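Hi R.,

As promised, here are both runs. First protein below:
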Amino acid sequence: MPRLIVVCHSEDCRNSAVRNPTNPRPMKCVGEFASAWNFLCETCGSRRIVTKDVAGGMFGVGQRDDGTGPRGGKGPEKYRRLGGVIK
C-alpha cells in the first residue's frame, strides 16, 4: 500500500482540497500498476494516478503499464490487499 495520503483536487468535488482545504477526504486506493497507484474519489468519482517514486511501493509489482499482467497480486482474491476483503 502507498505511504502517502492522496486527496482529490477537483474543483467540483465537495470533499476536495480545493473546496474543503482544512479537511479533505482521502481518496481510496483501487489498483496497482507496475510503476504507479490508482486512486478513486468516492465522492465525485474522479481518479488520480500517482507514481510509486512519489507515493512509495515496490516497482514491478501489479499490473504492467501496458495493461497486461496481474491486476491485484498473487494468490486467491481474499488474500490480496486491494482485491478483496480479508475475513
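And here is the second one, sequence first, then its C-alpha cells:
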Amino acid sequence: MLALFTLPAAAPAPDPLLGQIVSSARAIAPASLAFERQSRTLTQQASGPPESHQRVDRWDGRAFTLVSVDGKPPAEKDAAAFRKATASRPVPGYHRIADMLGAGATRRSDAQGRIVYHVSSLPKDSVRLGKDISANMAGEFIVDGSGAQLYVTQARLTLTKPVSFFMVAKLDSVVITLDYKLDGNNRPYLASTVQMMAGAQFGKQGTTRSETSYTMLR
C-alpha cells in the first residue's frame, strides 16, 4: 500500500502593492501631525426629541486639548477628564491604515474597477466603542492608484455581528466611513469620519450619527 503524503499549502505570494501602502502609512508618525478636530453627534431614541452635541479639540503632536463643547469653553474638570481619556487612545490618522491592513488583507476589485482590500476581522484596538469591538468589525479599503501617490482614499468598517455591553446595552449595527485626502505635500491624511450606530440601552432603541472633520495645522 502506498503511503499518501499531504504537502503543506503554499504561503500566499507577497502583495507588493499592499506592502507599499502599509509602509507609507507606517512612515507617518503621529508626532509629526497637528490638526483640529470638529465633531457633531446626533442621538435619536425611539421616543423623545433628538440630542445634538458638538465638540472641538486639537492635537499638537504630543497631546489633545479640548477647545470647546457645544460652542462654549470647557469646564476645567471636563478638560481634565478629556485629557485623561485621550491619553490612552490611539491618535486618529492615516498612519492607522498600516495596522488595520496588516491583518490578512485580501485584494479585490469593485464595480468601478478600483482596487479594494478586505479584512474580515480587524486587529485589536482598531475600533473601541466603550470596549474593543475590533474582532467583530470587517474593513473595506479603497485604493487610488491613478496618480503619482498611491494611497487608501476611503475605509469602510462594518460590524459583522451584534455586541453586548454588560447586559445593559447592545450594538446591532455600526458603520464607520473614513475618508482620506492628500495635503499640500502629497501626504495622505484623515479628512473626515462618519460613524453610524444603532442599538439599545436599558431596553430603549436608538441611533447615533457622529460626523467629524479634520483640519491639518501642519
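A quick note on the second one: The mean pLDDT is 91. Let me know what you think.

Best,
J.
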